[in-house]
Amino acid sequence: MPAGGLFMSDWQTDLDDLLKRTTTFVESVGSKIEALGVRSRATAEPITSPPLPKFGGCERDEIMKRVESFKAHQLRAIREREEYAVSVLTKLKEALGVRS
């Protein structure tokens, strides 16, 4: 017996059996879906992504505007995080009765 105690029988037969059972299952589910009148993903409308904002100008200008927007977002996040930390420390000091 191989290491781990597993014995591999005729894997090709097992694979063929699995394929046959899977195909039968898919066909049975497909007929039930058709009977219910549910559309499958293949017939549903494709998902479209929302349009990207138009900045106008050349690509370099667009990239610069996106970088500026990202930097502003990062600075806002840093400021909010610092304000939150200060508020938590203030509340903690008040709870402990510590004066600064």
Number of helices: 2
Domains, number: 2
Helix-and-strand structural type? mainly alpha
Low-confidence stretches: none
Gross morphology: elongated
Strand content: under 5%
Strand segment count:
0
Mean pLDDT: 79
Tell me about the biggest sheet? none
Offer a quick outline of the entry.
The chain is an all-alpha fold and 100 residues long. It has 2 helices and no strands. It folds into 2 domains: 33 residues; 43 residues.
Topology:
Blueprint: H1 11-36, H2 59-96
Question: Any key phrases for this structure?
Answer:
2 domains, 100 residues, 2 helices, mainly alpha, 0% strand, elongated
Q: If you had to describe this structure to a student in words, what would you say it looks like?
A:
This protein has 100 residues and is an all-alpha fold. It folds into two domains: 12-44; 58-100. Helices cover 64% and strands 0% of the residues. It has helices at residues 11-36, 59-96. The chain is elongated and about 75 Å long.
